[in-house]
Amino acid sequence: MSNKQTSESPAEQEGESNKQRGGLFSRLKNGLAKTRTQLAEGVGNLLLGEREIDDSVLDELETALLVTDVGVDTTSDVMAELAQRVRRKELNNTRALHGALAGLLEQRLQPLQQKLQTEAHTPYVIFFVGVNGVGKTTTIGKLAKQLQAAGKSVMLAAGDTFRAAAVEQLQVWGERNDVPVVAQPQGSDSASVAFDALQSAQAKGVDVLLVDTAGRLQDKAQLMDELKKVHRVVQRIDASAPHEVVLVIDGGVGQNALSQVKLFNEAVPLSGLVITKLDGSAKAGVLFAIAALPDIHLPVYFVGVGEKIDDLREFEASDFVSALLSAEEA
Questions:
Q1: Cys staple from 183: which of 151, 158, 168, 208, with CB 3.0 to 4.6 Å?
Q2: How far apart are CA 329 and CA 285, in angstroms?
Q3: Which pLDDT belongs to residue 53?
Q4: How, if at all, do strands 154-158 and 244-250 pair?
Q5: Strand pairing of 124-129 and 208-212?
Q6: Which residues are CB-neighbours of 326 under 8 A, at least 6 positions away?
Q7: Exposure pattern of 277-313 as b/e (b: 16+ CB <10 Å)?
């Protein structure tokens, strides 16, 4: 235990923890600024003057939810519930409506909240999949740093051998964080890279192996076949691997995220999601559409709301909704 931990009182430690949490929430709030601005006309204004609730208020709110890609089904369900509460006189003004909206939105996102656990196997093998440009390689680098900070030993596998920049980028992350990277020249067999990396991770007793994968080949069928091949090859060494297949999605693509979830899940069954680039998107409402998928139920392990290491943060439904609906500027 460090000197700081032993010298601080419980009250001081709690204060420091609250300060860190406040800083993280502030970054999340800043990261969601574009979506919050998009919502402001229909949602932020609910807090102004505690107006009576009329049809125009509900219409504005419905439009605001739709334009941020919350999704037609979720928006319809939420609006129907709010309208019913208004008719029952449970909601008397726009401030009460705002509070009810927050509760309904959090309720829908709660099933997505789940921490990534890596203790069940050693090494714990995590595949990262997704189309090019979503931030897979950056996400892997940030997560590697966070796992290190939690006391885990980490190894990276540069499995996106079809894009030279991806291999180089992962090697830079490895050098920066002093994490070993298994890589082969551009054009090598990505399954071979994953195979070698898993053998090395086993031999060295590494806690977590993070595997980058290709994001684009000549067509979707070829990409999915490649992912299936990598999946099969690592199972020759460890029948339980990979222990996670995490899809990384650019939050700015809106409803297109749903088709990506379905497509990748058909190729290699997904276990979780990371939603990146929410700081550059006005469509962060897509998380609600993901939560409403009828046949696919996946946790969102992390959301990305900026470029810093700490801007890849664990998804928490209450914080996300609070940051999304906050009226005051960050």
A1: 158
A2: 19
A3: 87
A4: unpaired
A5: parallel
A6: 29, 36
A7: bbbebbbbbbbbbbbbeeeeebbbbbbbbbeeeebbb
Question: If you search the block for the tokens 């339980």, which residue do you land on?
Answer: 240
Euclidean distance between CA atoms 47 and 95, whole angstroms: 5
Name the amino acid, one letter, at 273.
Answer: L
| Joined tokens for residue 72 | 């037609």
Q: Which residue has the tokens 């894009």?
A: 163
Tokens 């190894």 label which residue?
A: 155
Q: Determine contact, residues 133/188, Cβ cutoff 8 Å.
A: no
Alpha-carbon distance of 240 to 234, in angstroms, equals 9
Q: Going from the first residue of the chain to its last (330 residues), give the mean pLDDT of each consecutive group of 10, the final group possibly shorter.
A: 44 50 75 82 64 86 88 94 94 88 95 97 97 92 95 97 88 94 92 97 98 81 90 96 97 88 93 93 87 94 88 93 71
Q: Are 22 and 316 in contact (CB under 8 A)?
A: no
Tokens of 276: 């990146």
- Tokens read off for 39: 């919502």
Q: Could you give the CA distance from residue 157 to residue 167 in angstroms, rounded to a whole number?
A: 9
Using CA atoms, how far residue 143 sits from 33, 128, 150, in Å, is 24, 11, 11
| pLDDT at site 44 | 62
Assess whether the previous peptide bond of 123 is cis (omega < 30° from 0): yes
**Long-range pairs, 305-310, Cβ under 8 A, ≥24:** 305/27, 305/28, 305/30, 305/31, 305/32, 305/278, 305/279, 306/27, 306/30, 306/31, 306/279, 308/27, 309/142, 309/145, 309/146, 310/24, 310/27
Helices 317-325 and 10-31 sit at what angle, rounded to 10 degrees? 60
Task: Please give the DSSP secondary-structure letter assigned to residue 32.
Answer: T
